[in-house]
Amino acid sequence: MTHNELLSRKPQQNSLRWKNDEREPLVIIVDDDEAVREGLSELLLSAGLNPVAFASTRELLDAGVLDRPGCLILDVRMPGTSGLDLQRHLTESDNPKPIIFLTGHGDIPMTVQAMKAGAVDFLTKPARDQTLLDAVISGIALDAERRAQSIIIKKHVDRLATLTHRERQIFAEVARGRLNKQIAFDLGISEVTVKLHRSNVMRKMEATSVGQLIRTWELLPAELREPPQASA
């Protein structure tokens, strides 16, 4: 997309259709240049996507749309909070939303910083239409994958809460690769008891194999993978 093409684009009247279905991916544009916002909105609409545009990160944060599925297209340098500042804020808020940076002021250190922090892409204005659309599609797909993973992890956490203290101990030891007889010796119980507890863990965690049980353990949040202390 050339600069003149970007300036000449005008948004369609249905550019607010994103409000109708909160399950649909939303492409959030944040750029202080109105012509850029309009041009990007029109491009995304023409590709069947749902854009919404803001002139500043403050406007975006006040709008309450960050929990919607989708991705962000951010300018780097804007009045107030910059795009990189917003990226940092979202990461610290445990909302690592996929971000495509689109800027006329990029440099290599800035690009490295953004990509290391998890940006999908870092594009320089004027970017080609297809290059930008490809990045947006990748961002939406990444967000969908993360959301699906989050649902799975929540199910694992809920199942973990059904385990007894001893079962959580056994779960942690199995995940470390310990054998039944080693676990029995360490915990001062019989090997038969270990097998019984392990069977209960697999049933409650809905794992069909030890390998699947270990993969489930690795998906749990780090604070829940701390071996439980021995009960008094």
From TrEMBL:
GO molecular function, one term: DNA binding
UniProt keywords, alphabetically: DNA-binding, Phosphoprotein, Transcription, Transcription regulation, Two-component regulatory system
Protein's recorded name: DNA-binding response regulator
Pfam families noted in UniProt: GerE (PF00196), Response_reg (PF00072)
The HTH luxR-type domain, residue ranges: 156-221
SMART domains noted in UniProt: HTH_LUXR, REC
Residues recorded as bearing 4-aspartylphosphate in the entry: 75
Gene3D superfamilies per UniProt: 3.40.50.2300, Winged helix-like DNA-binding domain superfamily/Winged helix DNA-binding domain
GO biological process, any: phosphorelay signal transduction system
Response regulatory domain ranges (all copies): 26-140
CDD domains: LuxR_C_like, REC_FixJ
PROSITE patterns associated with the record: HTH_LUXR_1 (PS00622), HTH_LUXR_2 (PS50043), RESPONSE_REGULATORY (PS50110)
InterPro entries assigned to the protein according to its UniProt record, in alphabetical order: CheY-like_superfamily, Sig_transdc_resp-reg_receiver, Tscrpt_reg_LuxR_C, WH-like_DNA-bd_sf
